[in-house]
Design brief:
CATH class of the largest domain: Alpha Beta
Largest sheet: 10 strands, mixed
Oligomer: single chain
Distance between the termini: 33 Å
CATH superfamily of the largest domain: Spore Coat Polysaccharide Biosynthesis Protein SpsA, Chain A
Order of helices and strands: EHEHEHEEHEEHEHHEHHHHHEHH
Number of helices: 14
Shape: globular
CATH topology of the largest domain: Spore Coat Polysaccharide Biosynthesis Protein SpsA, Chain A
Helix content: 40-55%
CATH architecture of the largest domain: Alpha-Beta Complex
Length: 355
């Protein structure tokens, strides 16, 4: 495998047991793991002494932005990606992404597909995630066209993609140099800049299992403020908004210089596309509420509700048995390594049994 050429940067905060689970999963693998832990207390020395050489654990009780900047300076491999402390990645698909990047020099990043999972009564329940991901091939020559396409049907694919380290460091250095106070501002910036910087691809293979076991880490930093979402922030005329547009325009110019390109971009146009996308997606907030009560009804009532939701164009693909989701992937001709998935499934189940 080519995993010796890959570094996974994992920011983590107050999830000790899940972090230990992740470390054990990657222990003694070829891949490099940089864990930047912002928790108040470090993992115990007795555990840290047992870490294999591929794992670099850093306890740094600082802001999210400072931790990311610190970790980014330590990446030395040809390829890099962000990871989460409770997610699992299919190693063979990561290898396929690296192979794709080695074969296609015009690509700056590559990723596979995703499913979400949770543990429920000795079983793994799952669902397809980011259904528009496979269609999100950004292969246009123009950076502005790629950004247009990406923000019109937004999916946070670059955050989870295997990327060329040079490009990744450039973009991470720009994005995490200044923090803006709306939820996940760094994600929007990173996604727009990656789309602008170069061509990015998605392969028809399952790459990661995203955990629903924990709530997202929120309200620890300005960019994780749940009280201020992009739609409200974008509707309001303020100095920060003007500064954001100015900075993003400059970041794109910086990328042009560093990559020896002459692409142009309309930041306001692209952010308006993103705003329109979020407005259309608003119905899914209602959908989430409906799904929470959906499974409380008897089967006959649930069947009727499902038909109604489908007519309203809601996605009623609630969590199902993992095997059902894998069968769906097979029907869609999405490949996955059965042995690796079974290994991950056993790790998750044993983890919760022992909790």
């Amino acid at each position: 495998m080519n995993l010796k050429d890959l570094t996974i940067v994992v920011p983590t905060y107050e999830r000790k047991s899940y972090l230990i689970r992740l470390i054990k999963f990657w222990q003694d693998e070829n891949v490099k793991l940089i864990i930047i832990d912002g928790s108040k207390k470090s993992l115990e020395n007795s555990f840290l002494k047992k870490l294999s050489k591929n794992i670099n654990y850093i306890h740094y009780h600082a802001s999210y932005y400072k931790r990311i900047r610190k970790a980014s300076l330590l990446v030395k491999t040809k390829f890099v990606m962000f990871g989460c402390d409770d997610d699992f990645y299919v190693k063979s698909t990561l290898n396929s992404c690296i192979t794709k990047l080695q074969e296609r020099k015009d690509l700056i990043s590559c990723c596979g597909l995703a499913i979400g999972y949770n543990y429920d009564n000795n079983k793994i329940k799952s669902k397809l995630l980011f259904k528009s991901l496979f269609k999100n091939q950004l292969l246009k020559k123009s950076g502005n066209e790629r950004a247009n396409k990406h923000l019109k049907n937004f999916v946070p694919k670059h955050f989870y993609s295997v990327s060329r380290t040079k490009i990744w460091k450039l973009i991470v250095g720009l994005v995490f140099s200044k923090e803006y106070e709306f939820l996940s501002s760094y994600e929007l910036q990173l996604e727009l800049l990656f789309a602008f910087a170069g061509k990015t691809s998605v392969i028809p293979k399952l790459m990661f299992l995203r955990s629903f076991e924990n709530d997202g880490i929120r309200n620890t930093d300005r960019s994780l403020n749940t009280k201020i979402v992009f739609e409200d922030w974008w509707r309001t005329e303020n100095k920060n908004k003007k500064q954001f547009i100015y900075e993003m325009t400059n970041y794109c110019q910086d990328l042009n210089k560093l990559l020896n390109k002459k692409d142009s971009i309309n930041i306001i146009e692209n952010l308006n596309y993103y705003y329109d996308f979020l407005k259309k997606y608003k119905k899914n907030f209602v959908y989430v509420f409906l799904l929470n009560i959906f499974q409380l009804f008897p089967n006959n009532i649930r069947f009727i509700l499902k038909k109604i939701l489908l007519k309203m164009e809601f996605d009623v693909n609630y969590l199902r048995d993992l095997k059902d989701i894998l069968n769906t992937l097979s029907l869609k001709k999405i490949k996955f390594n059965t042995k690796e998935i079974e290994e991950i499934e056993n790790i998750i189940i044993n983890f919760h049994i022992k909790k």
